[in-house]
Amino acid sequence: MKISFIGAGHVAWHLAQALENAGNSVQEVFSRDPKKAKEVVSFCYNAQVQEHLDFSESTSDVFFLCIPETAYAQVLSELLLPKYGTLVLVSGTAALAEAMVMYDPLRESMNQMGVFFPVQQLSTGRKISLAHMPICVEVLVEETEITLVTLAKDISDAIYVVSGEERKKIFLAMQMAGVFTNQLWTQAKQLLDSIDLDTQLIQGIVENHMKAFFTQQTIPSATVQLNYETLAFIEKPEMQEIYKQMVLLSQRSLT
């Protein structure tokens, strides 16, 4: 398929290369920052930097919207697509119906819209294999589902067709298991650094809990008491509050 990207951040950087390596053709890349658009284009065979949001003359079939959801209202109101182009939101939480109203308030366009949500934290310049990366697809009509599932299968073997509510729960689970947990690991590392020890000291317990989680084994809950002397070792007040709440949750799980 012929594809264009609106947005040139981390996700566009990965998807553009993966989709083109699978035999698709990236035609244009738009970004408010032309330097970022040029960077994505440099990894593609025949792509061009698009300087505006008028794609009405584009030959692309599918347009990936890879921008922050906070920018949807402005960008969607300016965006112009070819008559039958498919607009794809790359988002964990954006509502399809609301995005459609932003793009086409009078419901006059022939454009279809869907969601293509990679369940992975992607960063520019750090190449990772996407072959087993879960991709969640949400659509309003069957024709769009065929298009998005086909593109998803080009780069991954883990495809899930989901509803909007399911996608939002997956996004929240992704944050809790990844982004938020990484913050706790960072705090653990800082505590060990303060006494000149490295993270290998807790590698075993981390691996043990991860293995148990993914094999659905049960690890007996440890009794955790709120010790204010220990709490003082945590420098940031917000992390102290998180620690308190986690202790309370651990105690409740034992009752």
Layout of strands and helices, then pairs:
Blueprint: E1 2-6, H1 10-21, E2 25-30, H2 34-42, E3 48-50, E4 62-65, H3 72-78, E5 86-89, H4 96-103, E6 112-118, E7 135-139, H5 142-155, E8 159-161, H6 164-193, H7 203-214, H8 228-231, H9 237-253
Parallel strand pairs: 1-2, 1-4, 2-3, 4-5, 5-6, 7-8
Antiparallel strand pairs: 6-7
Characterization of the model:
By secondary structure, the chain is an alpha/beta fold. It folds into two domains: 2-162, NAD(P)-binding Rossmann-like Domain (Rossmann fold), CATH 3.40.50.720; 169-253. It is built from nine helices and eight strands. The protein has helices at 10-21, 34-42, 72-78, 96-103, 142-155, 164-193, 203-214, 228-231, 237-253, and strands spanning 2-6, 25-30, 48-50, 62-65, 86-89, 112-118, 135-139, 159-161. Strands 3-2-1-4-5-6-7-8 form an eight-stranded mixed β-sheet, covered by helices on one side. Strand 5 (86-89), helix 4 (96-103) and strand 6 (112-118) form a beta-alpha-beta unit. It is elongated and about 65 Å long. The mean pLDDT is 93.
First-residue to last-residue Cα separation: 56 Å
What spatial form do the alpha-carbon principal axes imply? elongated
The tally of strands reads 8
Count of DSSP H/I helices:
9
State the low-pLDDT regions, or none: none
Largest sheet properties? 8 strands, mixed
Q: How do the helices and strands follow one another from N- to C-terminus? A: EHEHEEHEHEEHEHHHH
